[in-house]
Amino acid sequence: MSDTKAAGMTRRELFEQRQKRRSIVIAGTSTLLVLLAVVILVPLTPGWEKVQKSFFNGAVLTKTFPKLIDAFQLNVLIFIWSAPLIAILGLLVALARDAKSPAMFPLRILGAAFTDVFRGVPVILTVYLIGFGIPGLGLPRPWNSPYIWGSVALILTYSAYVAEIFRAGIDSVHPSQRSAALSLGLSERQIMWDVILPQAVRNVVPSQMNMLIALQKDVSLLSFIGPVEIFRQAGVFKSLLANFTPYVGAAIIFLIITVPATRYADYLLARQSKERS
Amino acid sequence: MFKKTTISVVLTALMASTAIAGGHCAADKTLTEGKLTVATGNPAYFPWVIDDAPESGQGFEAAVVYAVAKEMGFSDSDVVWVRSSFDEAIQPGAKDFDFNIQQYSITAERDEIVDFSAPYFTSPMAVLVGPGAVDTAATMAALKGLKWGASGSHTSVQKLMNDIRPMSDPLLYADNADINAAIGANQIDAALFDLPTALFLSAVMIEGSKVIGQFPADDSQGGDQFGMLLEDGNQLKTCIDDALAAITANGTLAAIEATWLQDTTGVPVIQ
Fold it and tell me: Reduced to 3 states, what is the DSSP secondary structure of residue B210?
């Protein structure tokens, strides 16, 4: 053993190193070729000049970008107050759907109906119906604010999805855990809170990360009922300037947030599958 | 001197109109030879187009289109209607219309991307208030205190932000129906429209609402000039401009306006 180490690497290691180098060169070249093709060929298309002026207009971007960032703060705010409420309501619905006692049967039905309805209706419809409908009943200001009822619509829709993920997490905890806890004399409540939920929640963290990313994007749907968040602000610029570049600017801002978040969710998922295998 | 110029303008316009009536100007310049393809909104709103049926020629913009088409040498049956959204009209690439008419305000920024005809209407902006705010005085100071809404695709947003500067953040909507819903839900007190639209919404659509004032039309920020939208560099622009000049000179345009747009003199000017 020490002999081969001293001589450098084994033949196998040398071979693997060569293979690795070779694939890096191939991957690099092909990526470069594709990039070159895009950079050279797209501008050769007859409509490129017009597309560039309408979608990738530097002057328009620098003019509108700071205001888009201002508007994005509203997205972040709505996200911040909605996300915890979604987590709480989602967990409650999941627990309701998992209630074991026969007396709790109405709760299970209610939970099932809730998830069926709010997962089945497009988010934008829920936003419209709740955002204009409930304030239309005659609530006084400020309780008829579209910020409140738009957020409620998001919370209802997303907690339906989140509840299903929590439920899958609860189901993923092996029944033997429950039996073991019972044999130790733990109560139903203790079993759920101290034994099952800690494991269930841990199991579903990567999936819930994806819901957070989706929520971050769907906050923009509130623009339909009035709040001037980034999507509406970009739309205002689009109309005034007859130019789509502000939308590209908005997309960039979203990507700055969502790409790292997506990578992190992927990392969590990879770590989890490694732990399990 | 003044009279002479007027007469010569009218004469030139008349001569131009006879020349155009031959159909030479638009030859080879339209999408389909011998047809004039016109786009309008989906839906198209009163009083610009009545009952969303532009082919009837009923409504201000529909009537203007048929008058312009006639002037350009097209018969009524040569006018083909298509529908388009605002975004379709400004996207780069080939258009499926010769021109698009749906209350497009002419602005320098938009003109860089698309072309506009000469204006066919100048509209002051007007303030429509919901049932809860009908007693608001028509002064800037009183307007600042209202909760505002507007259409996000309309130039009124600029007027709202730059001139009125309301104390609370305005809410912006995709179209007039949503503004209507927001007023109904008492989420906003007031909204800014072009005057004919405001008068129509107040009279027909939004119960208990009132048009409390208009901004002076000569104020550069207060008035909007509506133009027909064409693809950038469209050769048809000069034909349309000539036709518009002709129907302005011979009084047709004023007559159409008198027929379809309400008398707006009763609305107080905002101080």
Answer: strand
Higher pLDDT, A277 or A198: A198
B190 touches chain A (CB under 8 A): no
State the DSSP code for B269: B
Q: How far apart are CA B239 and CA B244, in angstroms?
A: 9
CA-wise closest residue to A160 among A132, A205, A130, A122: A122
Position A167 pLDDT exceeds 70? yes
- Asked if A138 and B154 come within 8 Å (Cβ–Cβ), the reply is no
How many whole angstroms separate alpha carbon A233 and alpha carbon A238?
9
CB atoms within 10 A of CB A61: 17
Q: Which of A50, A136, A235 sits opposite B184 (nearest CB)?
A: A136
Residues of A in contact with B178 (CB under 8 A): 132, 224-226
Helix, strand, coil % (nearest 5) of chain A?
Answer: 85, 0, 15
Nearest Cα residue in chain A from B184: A136
The secondary element (H helix, E strand) that includes residue B7 is: helix B2-21
Q: Which residues of chain B lie closer than 8 angstroms to A132, CB-CB?
A: 178, 181-182, 184-185
pLDDT value at residue B6: 54
CB neighbours of residue B228 within 10 Å: 29
Please, which residues bridge with residue B171 across strands? B149
Q: For the purposes of burial, counting CB atoms within 10 Å of the CB of A19, is it exposed (0-12), middle (13-18) or buried (19 or more)?
A: exposed
Burial class (CB in 10 A: 0-12, 13-18, 19+), A42: exposed
- φ/ψ (deg, to 5) at B67: -65, -45
